[in-house]
């Protein structure tokens, strides 16, 4: 897939996420999609990923991604983004804190047949800001 098409695919996907247009996500993700998280867990399959995104929407109803940088090589695209939102609902067993969070992250996605088949996502900064884990001296609060 050409570089500009990889970037456009990422942009369209994040636009759908920002609009909470979850019905269109199947256009972007393979059924056997795997998401690797910074907490050492994996989200396996598009249906499980969709549940994760639904939980994110419920927990942070005002979340918004801002896209910054793209780096592409072969079938992979890395994207640096910032996520902002207010913790209004339970997230991963964490009751609502009403805290506003700003976290940055880098997704590294692998694309096959115009769909994401594998990704990596960082949630450490968000967990620090919600007070679930202490902020480390090396990572700070990611704010």
What are the salient characteristics of this protein?
143 residues; alpha+beta; Nuclear Transport Factor 2, Chain: A; 3 helices; 6 strands; 25% helix; globular; disordered C terminus
Annotate the secondary structure layout.
Elements: H1 3-18, E1 29-37, E2 42-44, H2 46-59, E3 64-73, E4 76-86, E5 100-112, E6 115-121, H3 124-129
Parallel strand pairs: 1-6
Antiparallel strand pairs: 1-2, 3-4, 4-5, 5-6
Question: Can you offer a commentary on this structure?
Answer:
With 143 residues, the chain is of the alpha+beta class. The chain has a single domain (3-129), classed as Nuclear Transport Factor 2, Chain: A (Roll), CATH 3.10.450.50. Helix content is 25%, strand content 37%. The protein has helices at 3-18, 46-59, 124-129, and strands spanning 29-37, 42-44, 64-73, 76-86, 100-112, 115-121. The radius of gyration is 15 Å and the shape is globular.
């Amino acid at each position: 897939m050409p570089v500009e098409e990889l970037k456009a695919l990422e942009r369209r996907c994040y636009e759908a996420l920002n609009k909470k247009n979850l019905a269109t996500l199947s256009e972007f993700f393979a059924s056997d999609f795997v998401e690797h998280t910074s907490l050492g867990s994996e989200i396996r399959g598009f249906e499980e990923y969709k549940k994760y995104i639904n939980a994110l929407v419920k927990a942070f109803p005002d979340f918004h991604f801002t896209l910054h940088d793209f780096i592409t090589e072969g079938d992979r695209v890395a994207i640096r983004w910032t996520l902002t939102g207010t913790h209004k609902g339970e997230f991963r067993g964490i009751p609502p804190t009403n805290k506003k969070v700003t976290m940055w992250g880098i997704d590294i996605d692998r694309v096959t047949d115009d769909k994401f088949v594998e990704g990596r996502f960082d949630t450490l900064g968000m967990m620090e800001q919600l007070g679930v884990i202490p902020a480390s001296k090396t990572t700070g609060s990611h704010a």
